[in-house]
Amino acid sequence: MTTEAKAVPVGESRFDVVIVGAGFSGLYMLHRLRGLGFSVRVCEAGSDVGGTWFWNRYPGARCDVESMQYSYSFDEALQQDWRWSERFATQPEILSYINHVADRFDLRRDISLDTRIASATYDEDAAEWTLTTQAGARIAARFCIMATGCLSAARIPDFPGMADYRGSVFHTGHWPHEGVDFSGLSVGVIGTGSSAIQAIPPIAAQAGHLTVFQRTPNFSVPARNWAMTDAYEQSWKRDYAALRRRAREETRSGTIYEFSDKGALAVDAETRRREYERRWQQGGANFMHAYNDILVDKAANDTAAEFVRGKIRATVADPQTAEALLPHGHPLGAKRICVDTDYYETFNRDNVTLVDVRRAPIERLTQDGLRIGGRDYAFDAIIFATGFDAMTGALDAIAISGRGGATLKEAWSAGPRSYLGLMIAGFPNLFSVTGPGSPSVLSNVIVSIEQHVDWIADCLVHLHRHGVRTIEPEQAAQDDWVAHVNEVAHRTLYPQANSWYMGANVPGKTRVFMPYIGGVNVYRRICDEVAAEGYRGFRLAAAPALGIKPEPCAAL
Ligand code: NAP
Question: Which of 38, 230, 297, 299 has its CA 20 to 30 A from that of 474?
Answer without folding.
Answer: 38
